[in-house]
């Protein structure tokens, strides 16, 4: 099937009190109100624009913004009056701070964001979201400053009920013991083998399994039954990532626990398709050849 998509180019200038800003958007007629660029007078504090653009040719303001708009991974561009333009890529950005500046300074920042309105909203009411990755991430506005914080690369971010924000990523490698899974996460960048705290996190990990894997195959997570409860059908787990707190009900609910199987002690946990209704199985802590990966994490602070 073939269909025609019209692309409109437009910009809306907005003046709300002191602040001048405007939207610039390509509007796919089939999906109105999608991705846009919002420009403000401002600068990114995390970079020295002159330094990072050494050797780059000046470009027009339009091209600076448009190139970012057209590039999938671009989340934001920063430009000065000399036409020096620097773009920030989603995967290589972890944290940014943008501060508003006076028009006379000639500095511009354009955010890629998604806005329902095609008209000028009140500036103070705008909730800017980075909509480049899998999940929207908010810019936190504080006075005349915006900050944005995300996980490394395309790692998944979860904010837990206790307010702890965790970043996690699955890795597919045949690692047959808990000890080596912990070691691999450390080797990959000082990360922890992550503990799991919510159904949402667990489901995400479960869904990262390869569809052709055996039902018993899955990812190591951080948990080992305490010595005194070893080989028992029990939920007293030791979680050593430093940010996950033990919620025993959680394991009772989602893990198919036994403690042992035909004489083999099963004190560790694997996210897999073990039994109907369960997303975790307790397994032996070493020489477990169904283990096909592990989940690393760290606390975002
Ligand atoms: C970020 O990196 C991941 C994995 O390397 C890749 O699949 C994804 O397309 C990248 N995302 C963007 C927005 O560049
Ligand atoms: C949990 O495991 C760590 C690392 O193996 C160990 O140092 C710690 O003593 C254990 N905690 C308990 C309560 O057994
Ligand atoms: C483990 O304990 C739970 C809760 O008491 C029970 O439902 C389950 O059948 C037990 N599993 C085994 C293998 O005994």
Automatic annotation (TrEMBL):
InterPro entries from the UniProt entry: C-type_lectin-like, C-type_lectin-like/link_sf, CTDL_fold, PAN-3_domain
Query: Which lineage ranks, top first, belong to the organism behind this chain?
Result: Eukaryota, Metazoa, Ecdysozoa, Nematoda, Chromadorea
Gene3D superfamilies according to UniProt: Mannose-Binding Protein A, subunit A
Give start and end of each PAN-3 domain.
22-148
Q: Which domain of life is it from?
A: Eukaryota
Q: Would you tell me the protein name for this molecule?
A: PAN-3 domain-containing protein
Q: Which UniProt keywords apply?
A: Signal
Q: Which first-to-last residue range defines the signal peptide?
A: 1-17
Positions of the C-type lectin domain: 151-297
């Amino acid at each position: 099937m073939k269909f025609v998509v019209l692309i409109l180019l437009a910009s809306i200038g907005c003046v709300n009190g002191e602040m001048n800003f405007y939207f610039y958007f390509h509007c796919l007629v089939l999906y109105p109100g999608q991705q846009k660029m919002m420009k403000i007078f401002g600068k990114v504090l995390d970079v020295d624009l002159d330094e990072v653009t050494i050797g780059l040719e000046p470009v027009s303001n339009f091209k600076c913004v448009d190139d970012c708009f057209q590039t999938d991974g671009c989340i934001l561009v920063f430009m000065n009056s000399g036409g020096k333009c620097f773009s920030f890529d989603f995967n290589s950005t972890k944290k940014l701070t943008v501060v508003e500046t006076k028009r006379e300074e000639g500095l511009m920042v354009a955010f890629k964001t998604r806005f329902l309105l095609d008209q000028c909203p009140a500036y103070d009411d705008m909730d800017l979201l980075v909509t480049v990755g899998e999940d929207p991430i908010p810019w936190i506005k504080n006075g005349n400053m915006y900050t944005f914080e995300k996980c490394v690369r395309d790692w998944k971010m979860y904010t837990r009920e206790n307010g702890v924000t965790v970043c996690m990523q699955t890795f597919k490698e045949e690692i047959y013991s808990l000890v080596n899974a912990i070691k691999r996460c450390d080797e990959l960048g000082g990360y922890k083998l992550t503990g799991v705290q919510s159904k949402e996190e667990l489901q995400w990990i479960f869904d990262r399994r390869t569809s052709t894997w055996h039902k018993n195959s899955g990812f190591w997570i951080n948990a080992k039954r305490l010595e005194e409860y070893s080989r028992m059908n029990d939920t007293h787990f030791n979680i050593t990532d430093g940010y996950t707190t033990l919620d025993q009900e959680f394991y009772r609910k989602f893990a198919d626990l036994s403690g042992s199987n035909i004489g083999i002690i099963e004190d560790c946990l694997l996210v897999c398709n073990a039994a109907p209704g369960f997303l975790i199985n307790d397994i032996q802590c070493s020489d477990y050849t169904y283990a096909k990966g592990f989940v690393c994490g760290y606390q975002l602070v």
